[in-house]
Amino acid sequence: MRRRHDVKTKKLRAVAVAALALLPLAGCADNAAQASSSAVGDKKIEQPFSIFLGDAIGVVDYAQLKVLNQCLADKGYPQNLRVMASGPRNPFPQLIVTEATFGPASEDDAKRRGFGQDEPATPPAVVSSDPTYDRVSDQCAEDAWKKLSPNAKEVYYSYFDLGNALGMPFLLTVNQRMGQARWDQLLSCLAGKGYQTTKKADFYRYPDPGLFGVPLGSDTPDPAASWVPKHVPGTVEVGPAVPARSYTPAPREADFALAWYRCRRDTGIDKEQMATVMQVEGELVKKNETALSELNPQVEQVAKQAAALIGQS
Averaged over 61-77, what is the pLDDT? Predict the structure, then answer.
């Protein structure tokens, strides 16, 4: 039996990332999904989604994983504990919308980063071809949830469902509500600066700078992408870690990003889109207010217990 154990998490995060990717920027969906409100040029805006306790659920996630990995180490499998991340991370950064969510936040930002962003270091994958490890891992996972609190697992997964309920319809609704006429104004402005797309239907649904044929991105190669485990029976393999990476725009990307920023500003789409974001967020929060009011106190309590368990402040 071959199983891949992501030391960051092996739960529902991939589902959330795929559903919530908000950045119409260069690169793959994973890069977009890892964006956070702390990026240079971002300005965090108080918004209805701030009621969602992403940081708290990140503490629960990290604590469960740390206890699980310590259990594995105690039973002779130290690989996961050795390479896991050094602290919690909000698994729903896509619910934090900033000025940089839809493109560069300033002219300087456009010139420096184009449509990209720097990436933090990422722990390696752990791949098991050892049935004993797999059985121990499953048992350690269940024991870890119980150590957090009797209802930690139920609360955690319920909150992930809630995060997906907020995020899945979010950006598509914002884009649709902006309307084709407004996107035509942006396309017209970009065409006036020499940038055109033949994929207007796709652009109306998801206004992506990647649809204009301008090469984007010049990331440092990811060593994990080319790693192939040997899958020797009875072994547990650890892949290469991904170091922090700096994003360098492709040669024409910075110019295009600058045009994108100016056209969004000059047409007023930047402010209108943020206003629409706030409106749609408010509607989604209201739609899910019962779940939020029921789960938020539970998440806060479980996060407090989880932090105490692993000695996090």
Answer: 97
